[in-house]
Amino acid sequence: MIGVVIDFETNGFYGASVLSAAGILISVDWERKKTTRLDTFLRHYYPVEKWNPYAQEVNGLSAAQIQILREDGEYPLYFREDQSFFEFCSNANFAVAHNAKFDRSFLSLSIPWLCTMEICGGKLVDAVKRRGIKVKESELHQALYDAKMCLKLFEYVFEHQHKYLKSAIINKLPESSIV
């Protein structure tokens, strides 16, 4: 079964532009209790609306920083015009995010979403620390790093609450997609 771990850095709250999109495609072997990383996606975009200084304080993304991170990327300037992330996620059977309600508001996928914030509680930094996972706080609020931390939470829950996680995902899947 294929999953995708997702994180977005945005220019504000719901409805704001996505500034950074990250995804980690994983294979989940329920019988062997093993996850394998398959692919990684990371892109940076400009906002459609005016820059939000409060968002910039959190994620550190400015026009100059995005220009550097794009490295002359040959992809659309705005997330809403780029179908690549949707295509990246197209083979996934489920999605994982920390605060999935927020992340799914930027990406319409017709697959079940698993929320590590609901399962593990609290902010991402607190959830990983409570489980003994090392975190570099200076790298938080970078989409790919946050996706990696979310994946670590998923793997922790996968290891310690395997049956719960399996049923939480399997019960949300259409019968035709259960292998």
Describe, in plain words, how this protein is organized in 3D:
This protein is of the alpha/beta class. The chain has a single domain (2-177), classed as Ribonuclease H-like superfamily/Ribonuclease H (Nucleotidyltransferase, domain 5), CATH 3.30.420. It contains eight helices and five strands; from the N terminus they run E-E-E-H-H-H-E-H-E-H-H-H-H. The chain has helices at 53-59, 63-70, 84-89, 100-104, 116-120, 124-130, 143-160, 162-170, and strands at 2-10, 18-29, 34-44, 94-97, 113-115. The chain has a five-stranded mixed sheet. Helix 6 runs parallel beside helix 7. The longest helix is centred in the C-terminal third of the chain and has 18 residues, at 143-160. It starts with a strand and ends in a 9-residue tail after the last helix. Mean pLDDT is 91; it is low at 175-179.
Which helices and strands, and how do they pair?
Blueprint: E1 2-10, E2 18-29, E3 34-44, H1 53-59, H2 63-70, H3 84-89, E4 94-97, H4 100-104, E5 113-115, H5 116-120, H6 124-130, H7 143-160, H8 162-170
Parallel strand pairs: 1-4, 4-5
Antiparallel strand pairs: 1-2, 2-3
Helix pairs in contact: 6-7, 7-8
Order of helices and strands: EEEHHHEHEHHHH
Helical segment count:
8
Distance separating the two termini? 7 Å
Described by strand count, sense and barrel closure, the largest sheet is: 5 strands, mixed
| Strands, count | 5
Q: List low-confidence stretches.
A: 175-179
Strand ordering within the main sheet:
3-2-1-4-5
CATH class: Alpha Beta
In helices, the fraction of residues equals 25-40%
Number of domains: 1
Seen as an oligomer or otherwise, the chain set is single chain
Shape: globular
Task: Please report which band the strand proportion falls in: under 5%, 5-15%, 15-25%, 25-35%, 35-45% or over 45%.
Answer: 15-25%
Category from helices, strands and their pairing: alpha/beta
Fourth-level CATH superfamily: Ribonuclease H-like superfamily/Ribonuclease H
- Give me the CATH fold name: Nucleotidyltransferase, domain 5
C-alpha-based Rg, rounded: 16 Å
The CATH architecture category equals: 2-Layer Sandwich
* Rounded mean pLDDT score: 91
